[in-house]
Amino acid sequence: MTDAGTVVRPAEPSDLAAMAAVYNDAVLHSLATFDVETRPDDHYAAHVASARPGDHVLVAEDVALGLLGYAFSTTYRPRPAYDGTREVSVYLAEAARGRGLGRRLYAELLARVDADGVHTCIAVIAQPNPASEALHAAFGFEHVGTLREVGHKFGGRVDTALWQRMRPSWETSAQMS
Ligand SMILES: CC(C)(COP(=O)(O)OP(=O)(O)OC[C@H]1O[C@@H](n2cnc3c(N)ncnc32)[C@H](O)[C@@H]1OP(=O)(O)O)[C@@H](O)C(=O)NCCC(=O)NCCS
């Protein structure tokens, strides 16, 4: 698999089933998500439909192979004082990992988030996940803490690491509170 022919673009409703398939593979086979049962095809419908500034869903699509993965920014916690904060995440099909696609998705996602004036982004990374931590570190996220044994999956207790990225200081356009 090569990058030739892979585009990164905003998600559309027609992408929902393929996005859910990528997600459900992670549900069943990894600690990347604390969901333990598969989700329906419309799992990301509200994310894709959101027109709220700071909310984005991007997909990586290969012309021959179809949807390879996605990244999104969404509500961190549904309280007004968190309006300037977004939680971000990214999921790739197993065969699409380790060749720079996570970087491509995050570069585009964070450019959009910054342009919208989002003040800070949070990533919650279940442990261990060296690929995700390397990706977030590459985009200026810092490890700000670890919650001990907050998850229970595959018969064991799981820590989550919190990674945070502040809006770059050179960004001077719109600013969310
Ligand atoms: C995490 C994930 C999105 C990373 O995307 P990716 O396309 O595989 O990563 P990239 O090829 O863009 O590499 C990004 C960085 O991670 C590093 N990396 C990639 N795979 C790695 C691995 N298995 N172990 C350690 N580092 C790794 C790369 O070297 C690169 O670091 P650098 O910029 O310092 O050189 C992808 O592996 C994935 O979808 N994993 C399963 C779902 C998941 O864990 N999502 C995150 C939930 S928090």
How would you briefly describe this protein structure?
Helices cover 24% and strands 34% of the residues. With 177 residues, the protein is α+β, with helices and mostly antiparallel strands. The protein has a single domain, classed as Gcn5-related N-acetyltransferase (GNAT) (Aminopeptidase, 3-Layer(aba) Sandwich).
Q: Poorly predicted ranges (pLDDT <50, ≥5 residues)?
A: none
CATH topology, which one? Aminopeptidase
Kindly estimate the percentage of residues that lie in beta strands according to DSSP.
25-35%
Number of domains: 1
CATH superfamily: Gcn5-related N-acetyltransferase (GNAT)
Bound molecules: coenzyme A
Secondary structure layout plus pairing:
Elements: E1 6-10, H1 16-29, H2 45-49, E2 56-62, E3 66-75, E4 85-92, H3 101-115, E5 120-126, H4 130-138, E6 142-153, E7 156-166
Bound molecules: coenzyme A.
